[in-house]
């Protein structure tokens, strides 16, 4: 192995007078080596690189198309949702207005029914008061009549004797008899 290493080391010391050999000067050989490597990579790698770039471009375009389709679908769904929202809002407004008008109608009906009931109660009260007044007036009349009758009977009994009493009864019977003849 030592011989093999010595042969490479001795190669570095060869004079470059027209012979082939390794140049160990790094600053002089690096740009040349790099240009050769880059040239080979560009020549042979151009097709592979173009294929990779084309595949990447197709995937990006496909992703963009898919995104556009998804965007259009989302916009359609958004428009449908907005239309549904408008419809629901209109229905809610309609229910709200119908509810308010129904409440107002029920309120008016309740007020009217209460007013009617109050009027009937007022009428019943007035009728009851009138009836009670008439009853009270009749009772007072009856009591006054009874007192007057009792007073008149008392006066008659004290003033009349049996003969005057007999003449009064006879006169009344005569008047009744005359009335009976007139009616026949």
UniProtKB/TrEMBL annotation:
Residues 64-98 form a coiled coil. Belongs to the ATPase B chain family. It is a single-pass membrane protein. The chain crosses the membrane at residues 32-49. The keyword Transmembrane helix applies. This is ATP synthase subunit b, chloroplastic. It comes from the Eukaryota. GO terms for cellular component: chloroplast thylakoid membrane; proton-transporting ATP synthase complex. It comes from Acis autumnalis var. oporantha. InterPro entries: ATP_synth_b/b'su_bac/chlpt. The gene is atpF.
């Amino acid at each position: 192995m030592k011989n093999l290493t010595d042969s490479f080391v001795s190669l570095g010391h060869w004079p470059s007078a027209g012979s082939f050999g390794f140049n160990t000067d790094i600053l002089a050989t690096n740009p040349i080596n790099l240009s050769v490597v880059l040239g080979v990579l560009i020549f042979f790698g151009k097709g592979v690189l173009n294929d990779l770039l084309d595949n990447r471009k197709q995937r990006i375009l496909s992703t963009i198309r898919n995104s556009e389709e998804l965007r259009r679908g989302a916009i359609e769904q958004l428009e449908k949702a907005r239309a549904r929202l408008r419809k629901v809002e209109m229905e809610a407004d309609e229910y709200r207005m119908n509810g308010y008008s129904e409440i107002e109608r029920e309120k008016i009906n309740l007020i009217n029914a209460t007013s009617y009931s109050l009027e009937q109660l007022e009428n019943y009260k007035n009728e009851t008061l009138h009836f009670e007044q008439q009853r009270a007036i009749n009772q007072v009349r009856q009591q006054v009549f009874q007192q007057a009758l009792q007073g008149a009977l008392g006066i008659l009994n004290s003033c009349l004797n049996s003969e005057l009493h007999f003449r009064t009864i006879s006169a009344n019977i005569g008047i009744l008899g005359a009335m009976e003849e007139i009616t026949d």
